[in-house]
Amino acid sequence: MFNDELSRRISRARSNSISDLLRRSAARVPDKTAIVHHGLRQTYAELDETVNRTANALAARGVGKGDRIAVFSHNNHAFVVVYFALARLGAASVPVNFMLAAGEVGYVLEHSGAIGLIVEDALLPVAEQALEDAGLTGTVRVRGMIPADRPQPQPGWESVADWMAHGDASPPDVFIGDDDLTQLIYTSGTESRPKGAMLTSRSLIAQYVTCVMDGEMTAEDIEVHSLPLYHCAQLHCFLTPGIYLGATNIVLPGPDPELILRTVEAERATKLFCPPTVWISLLRHADFARRDLSSLRKGYYGASIMPVEVLKEIGDRLPGVRLFNFYGQTEMAPLATVLKPEDQVRKAGSAGRPALNVETLVVDDDDRPVPPGVVGEIVHRSPHAMLGYWNDPQRTEAAFAGGWFHSGDLGVMDDEGYLTVVDRKKDMIKTGGENVASREVEEVLYQHPAVAEAAVFGMPHPRWIEAVTAAVVLRDEESVSADELVTHCQKGLARFKVPKHIVFVEQLPKNASGKLLKRQLRTEVQPPWPSA
């Protein structure tokens, strides 16, 4: 329709990338507090300038459009700056779970093709071991250290604080398309190795609009962000929508109950997201009754279903808080359905209805919709959906069969259109808000010479909601204790993936075709902790 030059100019004029969101908020509310972290408070104008300086420092080190840069860190100010700085260059951030072992980190670095790694100083030993073990010491050439306990970087690393003070504060001149890769998030999935979900500005911004509308978010919000920012829930349902709106965001290093309660009181926070495990820890903390939490107006949970008694207790002890359940997954950027405040008790246990920009169905094995009350696979159509899995066309094709994104979760719709998640189509355990692929744990157990068979599954737990549990069949003439198997698993797995309970059985239950019956194990195995 138009010549190439005019088409490029039109595309720039219509730009709507993650990078644009912060710049627009800085222009709209330059003097408003954007980020609070420890003693640091930055306005939107200051944060925007810091992002520009960091982006220009990264560009000077050869980072450009399409590059992948891994970020291995707990929550901090630098994590937020780097995320937006990479988006401003058209590079993709690859957030890495800070609980992973060196071998797991190395896999993400290698599979993503990351040319850079930005690491919190406390995690440097794991990062360096990951680079060495994966043979990437010479490949990952851009290396930044986020200083916390070490003001000076280790040899071979540069201080991210120095990047933030780079001399050039001008905005980088990079055009970023709606479907250019913005972030590559590795999901535990249901396989032995994680998959990289490709998220774009189109996916994310559509999802932010949904969060804002269905979550009743406003520019006046003051929100505490304590859950990990490497995880899409805290980053993409709460922090970045807050930046988009021009709200105030308090970033905590982690979900410490005492610190959360103290911060809500001190900052007069209005919003708080926690998985059920953290809400429970807040309610049980001695400071809950002593702190002034009257500023809280909105509370959110996700990752697992909130026990009904806990819902009632939150309602009794925080009567001014409107509570929302957000259900989804990384591949949906991540929000898919919402259970709103008025339905929390009436529809307790439900994941709610499809969110604003989402269509959701429950289908059979032939992708045909099933009637209300019938269990099937949950599928979605939405601009939230990822672009696909990085370098994995086969799994991408399976995920988008029939023109719908297949969640892998089993669910049932009632006659009012409310969705209840009843199981995982493939065996995923959600423990303390973290995903654990059972097959990954099983493969580590199988590496022990005494193990003949192993089945890993989730058991209800009063604190973790689900606990990783293993049923093990030993080889003939072999013996090993549960403690020894736990020690064996600790060598190859992140701590949250290690089984919390191991039972020894003579044989694993299977059907006539040899398929393992994990549902039967869940009913037969008696956990050593009190019932959830």
Give a quick summary of the entry.
With 532 residues, the protein is an alpha/beta fold. It is 31% helix and 25% strand.
Protein described:
The chain has 16 helices and 26 strands. It is an alpha/beta fold. The chain folds into 3 domains: 46-176, Rossmann fold; 203-424, Rossmann fold; 428-524, ANL, C-terminal domain (GMP Synthetase, Chain A, domain 3). Strands 2-1-11-10-12-13-14-15-16 form a 9-stranded mixed sheet, with helices on both faces. Strands 4-3-5-6-7 form a 5-stranded parallel sheet, with helices on both faces. The mean pLDDT is 93.
Tell me the β content: 25-35%
**Terminal Cα separation, in Å?**
62 Å
* Helix residue percentage: 25-40%
Number of strands: 26
Second CATH tier, the architecture of the largest domain:
3-Layer(aba) Sandwich
Q: Which runs of at least 5 residues are low in confidence (pLDDT < 50)?
A: none
Shape: globular
Give the domain tally: 3
Mean pLDDT: 93
Topology:
Elements: H1 4-13, H2 18-28, E1 33-37, E2 40-43, H3 44-60, E3 68-72, H4 77-89, E4 92-96, H5 102-112, E5 116-120, H6 124-133, E6 142-146, E7 158-159, H7 160-164, E8 181-187, E9 195-200, H8 201-214, E10 222-225, H9 232-245, E11 248-251, H10 257-267, E12 271-273, H11 276-284, E13 298-301, H12 308-317, E14 322-328, E15 335-339, E16 353-354, E17 359-363, E18 376-381, E19 388-389, H13 393-399, E20 405-413, E21 419-424, E22 428-431, E23 434-437, H14 438-446, E24 451-461, E25 465-474, H15 482-490, E26 501-504, H16 518-524
Parallel strand pairs: 1-11, 3-4, 3-5, 5-6, 6-7, 10-11, 10-12, 12-13, 13-14, 25-26
Antiparallel strand pairs: 1-2, 8-9, 9-19, 14-15, 15-16, 17-18, 18-20, 20-21, 22-23, 24-25
